[in-house]
Amino acid sequence: MSEPLATLPALKGLGALAGLRPVLVIDTREQTPLAFARLPSVRDTLASGDYSFRGGEELFAVERKSIADLVGCCVGENRERFFRELHRLRGFRFKRLLVVGTRREIEAGHFRSNVSPRAVLATLAAIEARFDVPVVFAATPAEAAELVESWAWWMAREITVAANNLLRGSRFAGEPDEAETPPA
């Protein structure tokens, strides 16, 4: 099992954030949600993706597929719908297609469909090229949950560091600006 995730860095002027952790958001349409052990989670409707975190819903999205779901999205109108979902992720700063299963399972055709393994793998390659969405495999749901938690924590940390840098470069109301202070 992984070590617990650290808290976010302290913010000048927003020190209360220092002890907080991101809260994962699980889309209400997710039928078999991942079980998270290290970060709190809530169910809510997401415009894109199956997983995000509070405050980052328009920056961070993870679309999760089992191999069976993925194979079903490779043909017909399911493919069109799935590609529209992926198209919506293009503006996100962090996006992933998380496949619960292994590439070897796909290569061996361990799924119920007439779709060839090569067609499934070609679809994954097209997704990465067309939508700039990296495809990541996790062998188990527990491994997938750990990945989502880790990605969310690091993304929230980057946002917090950026906010801290903005605060360092800003001045609070009532503070004199160094350029406005007359020399002594």
Question: Top keywords for this entry?
Answer:
184 residues; alpha/beta; three-stranded mixed β-sheet; three-stranded parallel β-sheet; 6 strands; 16% strand; globular
Can you put this structure into words, describing what you see?
- The chain has 184 residues and is of the alpha/beta class.
- It has one domain (15-163): Rossmann fold, CATH 3.40.50.
- It is built from five helices and six strands; from the N terminus they run ββββααβααβα.
- The protein has helices at residues 67-72, 76-88, 103-107, 117-131, 141-168; strands spanning 24-27, 41-44, 51-53, 60-66, 94-100, 135-138.
- The longest helix has 28 residues, at 141-168.
- The model has no long low-confidence stretch (mean pLDDT 88).
Number of helices: 5
According to CATH, the fold-level topology is: Rossmann fold
Major sheet attributes: 3 strands, mixed
Beta-strand residue fraction: 15-25%
Count up the domains: 1
Determine the fraction of residues in helical runs and give it as a percent range.
Answer: 25-40%
> From the coordinates shown, what is the CATH architecture?
3-Layer(aba) Sandwich
